[in-house]
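Why predict the complex rather than its parts? Because the way molecules touch one another can change local conformation, and only a joint prediction can capture that. The input here totals 468 residues.
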Amino acid sequence: MVEDTSQLLDVLTGVEFFRGMSPTGLDAILRLADLTSFDADEYLFFQGDPADVFYIVVDGRVKLTQVNEEGVQVILNYPGPGEAFGIVAVLREMAFPVTAQTVEPTRCLAWRDSQLKQMILEYPQLGLNAIRILSKFIVEFQERIKELSTERVEQRVARTLLRLAGAEEAGVSGSRAIDFRLTRQDIAEMSGATLFTISRILSAWEREGLLGSDAQHITLLQPARLQELAEGRE
Amino acid sequence: MVEDTSQLLDVLTGVEFFRGMSPTGLDAILRLADLTSFDADEYLFFQGDPADVFYIVVDGRVKLTQVNEEGVQVILNYPGPGEAFGIVAVLREMAFPVTAQTVEPTRCLAWRDSQLKQMILEYPQLGLNAIRILSKFIVEFQERIKELSTERVEQRVARTLLRLAGAEEAGVSGSRAIDFRLTRQDIAEMSGATLFTISRILSAWEREGLLGSDAQHITLLQPARLQELAEGRE
DNA sequence: ATTTGTCATTGCGCTAGCGCAATATAGGTA
DNA sequence: TACCTATATTGCGCTAGCGCAATGACAAAT
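Output of the joint prediction:
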């Protein structure tokens, strides 16, 4: 199914979902996968579609969104290289709870729901890994719920940017770029605010030298200061 | 470790985490568990404690909360009989992201982190079950994020009450009681609003005959109408 | 019977952030 | 060069919901 197996094996060894797998096992699993290429802005699946595929991003970036009854959109996650999505739905014989759309040209490995189940039963380590990954999401989502419930927009925007820049794990020293296209509308949909409010906040921050933006690419120039704002320490 | 094994076995067979387990396996797992009784309002663990235990509620009710830097609390979940909590943290060698406190006298089965890991490796079916449970939370949390981002307080309160009454699965016909103590403050902390706003909304709904409340026990008299409010159909 | 503590209600003023409209900017393309 | 479309900015008025304070209701404790 896959052309360039050895190169892909390299990628997969860094993927959390496959942590602790033997090269032999990994190779067997890789043989089951489909490698698919997508253009930018292409839809992988829609919220409500029957969930029968599970993806891992090889390169590129995918946007996961939900819409409410009135059609207002919320962005839930931006999985990038090495990250998995679709596990959530695949084992529950349910519909995808989100819509997946690429934001740039993207390649993904895909497995069918039945294959995933089989893989986990054969390699229980994968079950543990999946639990770890899902737990991480739960913790992140819990935090976002907390933020939406108790914090003001400015704090949430700061947190959103830090999160997107991956500045949490990496510490807050030096400047950090968000390496994919990101409109004000996107940021609004991630932080639970309106386009207008985001525009005002980001303009102010640019004026203060907190961040630089050009052509929808944002760079956090003072992550440490942003971190302060995120925590409400004005 | 456990006194009344046969009675507990009955409870466990209904638990999602143990779905598909053989009686023999279940029995072996039960032997590893500790059954602990808690009074009302007792703390099981605090946010930030090292996560080394995984619980299943036998009877009673537990409240899972988070606090932000300023000490404002958010309620994330109210696990009841048959429901698991603590899986989230236990496999990630991390701290509990929430505080767990009973809301009434409660009995829980508890396993150590190392035991859970061992159990899953021995019975991969448990891994699949855990993934299903975690996925359900993710979907619920995603929905709450969507609600907090796009809906007004009244809608969110309606949804919170329906969720607590378990009216989603059970359909919306007939009246439904929420069978545990629940203050206005609690509802506020679940729906991302203030005590005052909740009080106003619930008073109005009581006047309209939508719900009845006495001694901190709320009954949804017209779940279908609440469902309409939740969806913004005024 | 009185006190104490917890929880709920309601009035009132305030403000963060929404929502709309008008205008500006910047790539892409013909 | 001019045009088109998508995105961003900014001003302005408005309101949902917050935050405080005063009061009330009820149960448990002494």
